[in-house]
Design brief:
The chain contains 4 helices and 4 strands. The chain has a single domain, classed as Glutaredoxin (3-Layer(aba) Sandwich), CATH 3.40.30. It is an alpha+beta fold. The N and C termini lie close together (about 10 Å). The longest helix has 12 residues.
Amino acid sequence: MAKVEIYYAQMCDLCHKAMDYFSEKEIEFESYEVKWKGEGWLEDDNSREMLRRCGDVDFVPQLFINDQHIKGWKTLSALIETGEIENLLKQ
């Protein structure tokens, strides 16, 4: 089974869209909430880990499928549209 991880913000509709996609497909995922504090991410364990893994990103969702970084909903939706997501989930 694929390992799916999602860094998300509660107020982010695209984050919820990404989580809904995996839920609808009955694909288990781990989710980590991060919080934006006006000019940057609130400093906590989740945001520190996201920035360590993703670099200096200023948007969410940030996803990992089997440790492969997927940068945002735009990238994820393209993978879904082309069917490439299925190959990532099989690895």
